[in-house]
Amino acid sequence: MIQINERSMLPIYEQIVQQMKELIAKGVMQENEKLPSVRELSAQLLVNPNTVAKSFQELERQGIIVTLRGKGTFVAKRTAAPGMERERMDHLQTELRRVVVEARHLGVSREQFIIWTDEEWKRFGGDADVNR
Amino acid sequence: MIQINERSMLPIYEQIVQQMKELIAKGVMQENEKLPSVRELSAQLLVNPNTVAKSFQELERQGIIVTLRGKGTFVAKRTAAPGMERERMDHLQTELRRVVVEARHLGVSREQFIIWTDEEWKRFGGDADVNR
Amino acid sequence: MIQINERSMLPIYEQIVQQMKELIAKGVMQENEKLPSVRELSAQLLVNPNTVAKSFQELERQGIIVTLRGKGTFVAKRTAAPGMERERMDHLQTELRRVVVEARHLGVSREQFIIWTDEEWKRFGGDADVNR
Amino acid sequence: MIQINERSMLPIYEQIVQQMKELIAKGVMQENEKLPSVRELSAQLLVNPNTVAKSFQELERQGIIVTLRGKGTFVAKRTAAPGMERERMDHLQTELRRVVVEARHLGVSREQFIIWTDEEWKRFGGDADVNR
DNA sequence: GTGGTCTAGACCACT
DNA sequence: GTGGTCTAGACCACC
Lengths: 132, 132, 132, 132
Prior knowledge:
Largest sheet of chain A: 2 strands, antiparallel
Shape of chain A: globular
Strand order of the largest sheet of chain A: 1-2
Number of helices of chain A: 5
Number of domains of chain A: 2
CATH architecture of the largest domain in chain A: Orthogonal Bundle
Order of helices and strands of chain A: HHHEEHH
CATH superfamily of the largest domain in chain A: Winged helix-like DNA-binding domain superfamily/Winged helix DNA-binding domain
Number of strands of chain A: 2
Helix content of chain A: 40-55%
Distance between the termini of chain A: 28 Å
Oligomer: homotetramer
């Protein structure tokens, strides 16, 4: 379910983080569902186990998954790390600005941009997650 | 006019590229306007000249600026590098997706997201660039 | 300045984190001072560079140090990560409780415990850091 | 009476050890009192019996409890394992230092720290255990 | 079985 | 020169 692009400038472990978050946002992975083990996933992606492990640790740090010692790793209940949120919110806005600037440079109209945004929004399960 | 954050995870040269593009998008820098020289800018930003040079090369690669030997560097007329556009357009959509995923994970509503988008859009000069 | 105990149950990278924090708390390392490079320190401690790197990343995550790309890593200005604090404060209290419980089990008197606390407190520079 | 946090970085068996010690320090469990059996406790905590067994072994190693073959496990008379004490005393001081360092980094004042210490001290039954 | 840690050694981007 | 990433393969504690 995850595609690795070896030639991307994003580190592999970040690609895994990214796509795992997408899978969870889309609802492909549900709360409390077990993720594939580090070894499994590394074999499947043809990637070193350490690299997958690093991704999992990063996802855990972000509160997206939890690891239960000796049992495996699971999709976390969405409870939102209390303090982290503000920081990540700021980060989000900075990234949004970058994307908007890029769009302007490419001559994308505001209307087109909103359409694209909606398309992406819908890819991730309509109106889930909104209620919190 | 450019602010460098030494401890950002974005390379310094990318920060320069990014902000230069913002300045042009905002219209602070106009077509055919001359940019400061590498030496000037590096002195001003307290950054290694190599780093500034790298930014200019990247901006040129993207068709945003042009360097005229012996004369200096100038803001390019738009449509300078038609071939690049497809690539950058794809890149834009990828980044947009990432931002949307992040927003969903943080529980941002579609409405809020659109509002933010509009705010950013307005920061860069209303309806310029739309007609092409 | 750092002592590694290979036989400790604390991971090596945690020992480095721990002791680096002590050095900074004691004032041996000052704000903005440059840390030894990953390679240097790894050679000195007879430890793999990856292990030292992991320590540095953890220290950065905690806001204790900052890394400047291509320049090195430096002791951070103490500005206290905004959101993290509450979490770490709770963690601190939990650890304090554990230590107190252990002391009670060993029959240490309250007075003795306070004396030890004061000794440790003095080891780290008397009254520095208190004003914030 | 014992709470297990599956996702703590402390091993589950250590959590049991820790909390059992707290119960004894608080006087909830008295000298010579019988502990629940491994099977009982494991069923109650929804934890693997092996894990509970490991906790009991550790508590016995520390001289906190004793197992009498065929009879069960009991809270030991204090001073059961005199040789262990030096080791645990050193460990205690190391941990105390860690906590103090952490407190300094978080900008906690000496006074506040003492107050917290007293609070924890009082949680565990005033002045018991002092006389020995 | 699980994830966590460590080593050895390589390559890369950034300054 | 710096730190960041990745691979290969090993060992360990925990469940």
